[in-house]
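Lecture notes, unit on binding sites. The following record was shown on slide 14. It pairs a sequence with beta-D-galactopyranuronic acid.
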Amino acid sequence: MLHLVFHYLCKVKIIKNMRKTTVILLWAAFMLMVLPTQAQEANYEEAKVGNFVLPDMLTMLDGQQVTNKKQWEDVRRQEILKLFQDNEYGIMPEANIETSYRIVEEGEDALGGKAIRRQVEITFSGNGQTRQLLVLLYMPKGVKKCPVFVSPNFQGNATTTTDPAVIESKYSTNERAHQTSRWSYERIIDSGYAVATFHYYDIYFDSDNKLSETIYPLFGFNTNADLQDNTGKAIAAWAWGCSRVLDYLLTLDNIDEQRTIILGHSRLGKAALWCGAQDQRFAMVISNDSGCSGAALSRRNYGETVATINKSFPWWFCNKYQSYNQDVSSLPMDQHELLALVAPRLVYVASAQEDQWADPRGEFLSLQEASKVYALYGLDTLEGSAFPAVNEPLWKGNCGYHIRTGIHDVTDYDWQCYIEFANRL
Ligand code: GTR
């Protein structure tokens, strides 16, 4: 491939006119830049995934087998949680953060008169500092106790809707209504569900060396140098933010505390899984195209890998995670165990056919493996099920999966599946 580029470039006029030694020198410099990334080119061939052995979810650290849900809940679940805290997502620092709520705006006739819109500012205070998170909440009218989706957004609250009353999130740089296709508000409301969203930057800027512009100064952390090996970073903080939104929702009489759902896409899918794994108040956890270090098995060398993700996004995971870049098999856990932490609650993993970077098959295999824990609760598992065809969801017991046609995105089809599955609650 690269030699073809070389020959093509040699035919370009300015290069043709250069001296041969200059061309060779320029080419050598280019190769030096390109080779390191070439060496890490992603694998997309199933035959090259290789063999791997997953850590046994049902064997406790002392070697005993887990045979019932009591052992799972009392011992093994805690062990696995700690493995993820210490090695991947990190722990949120301990601190006394005070929280207050202020309704900034409320509209009784939102979304064509079907919904109540409420915009709530959550103020966090700690360590002499404050930070605000702006929640956009739509609730169906006339429903006494509604189930609720909590789902952070990428570009700011006002980008999720054409509703002109929605206040722009403080750190948003995107135009209003820029990402409405990802938010099936009408469908959600028509199905009797409420939905709460917030801009993820309100909690943690999605870039490196910006700790001072996140929630962390409230915990007494201002630069990366203040972080321990197992201190959580962006993913842990976004997950924390989702739980704080749930705290608010649970103060409302018309929200059904038995039917709360956390949903995230991509990097926010990783955060949603980590949030749902820890916060058992969420009755359903949804991963939309979360991929590497989300739903997909880390030991499968397919698409994005632990090494690539750590290199591209060193501010997402705790520092310790970097130590597995060279040898992913030394990780003491794998992502199926993260999904298993959701048991026996509803868990849903969704992939997209053209999103091979996220390794759809690895996401499915991970869920299939995790579903074995559901058997401890007498629930159906995905054992023995084949990888489903596109647009043919596979739902068994409390585990749901689909792979749809299309790209890395959240679509109305995805929402349709999530709502139908959530109706099991
Ligand atoms: C990609 C990243 C993925 C996924 C995605 C996203 O660049 O490699 O892990 O999280 O971003 O969040 O859109």
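Take-home: DSSP finds twelve helices and ten strands in the chain.
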